[in-house]
Amino acid sequence: MSGPVISTDRLVMALPRAGQAAAMLDFVQRNREHLAPWSPPAPSGLYTIEHWQQVVIKSAAAFDAGQVIRLWMAPRNQPDTVIGSIGYSQIWRGPFCACVLGYQIDRDLEGRGLMHEALVAANRYMFEQQKLHRIAANYRPENVRSGRLLAKLGFRIEGYARNYLFIDGDWRDHILTSLTSGGFDAGWMRTG
Question: What residues contact 61, with CB distance under 8 A and at least 6 apart?
């Protein structure tokens, strides 16, 4: 399988694997209410194994095309379990060299520093291996926990977008943040 495998003290993050489709289905079913206030409307079939088997296939294709990097999080000692996900979408190259970050973690594991640990390593991968300059992350003002996490990671508030994203049954305002790489090399943009 192509794609990154990112390890930390407690976690391993990698592109979705076929053997994890059932574990991801279990994750979304267990966390349905927990994630609803922060998630867009669920696509048809979200709560079926077939949907997650297709996500595995589409994630590999999106990675190969350089468009999206979706990582499923697992405990290092339970690599077939899914406890969360991190996604870097809308990846742009050239003079923008940026992407948009989204993430989620199991409700029973919040407050243990796992998402912070995961994002430190995954963001480093995006800057150093994917050679991006900027990662944007936007959150609802009501999501205080997410705001604190992003601030701790070094994301800076850049603005406030009214009616930004359709979530939880309505258009929701979002706080716009970003993190930029201190090690960007303009030579990365040269081709040939």
Answer: none
What is the Cα–Cα distance from 62 to 54, expressed in whole angstroms? 12
Give the integer Cα–Cα distance in Å for 121 and 135. 13
188, 181 contact by CB (below 8 A): no
List b or e across 147-167, with b for residues whose CB sees 16 or more CB atoms inside 10 angstroms: bebbeebebeeeeeeeeebeb
The CB density around residue 111, as the number of other CB atoms within 10 Å, is 9
> Hey, what are 120's tokens?
């430190």
CA distance 192 to 188: 11
In which residue are the tokens 């930390």 written? 8
The secondary structure of 141-170 as a DSSP string is TT-HHHHHHHHHHT-EEEEEEEEEEEETTE
User: Which tokens sit at 155?
Assistant: 């994301």
Q: Strands 11-14, 69-75: parallel, antiparallel or unpaired by DSSP?
A: antiparallel
Average pLDDT, the chain: 94
Phi, psi dihedrals of residue 34, rounded to the nearest 5°: -60, -40
Mean pLDDT of the region 118-130: 97
Q: Measured between alpha carbons, how far is 170 from 142 in angstroms, rounded to an integer?
A: 14
Residue 190 — pLDDT band, cuts 50, 70, 90?
low
Compute the distance between CA of residue 168 and CA of residue 34 in angstroms, rounded to an integer. 12
Instruction: Answer whether 12's CB lies under 8 Å from 5's CB.
Output: yes
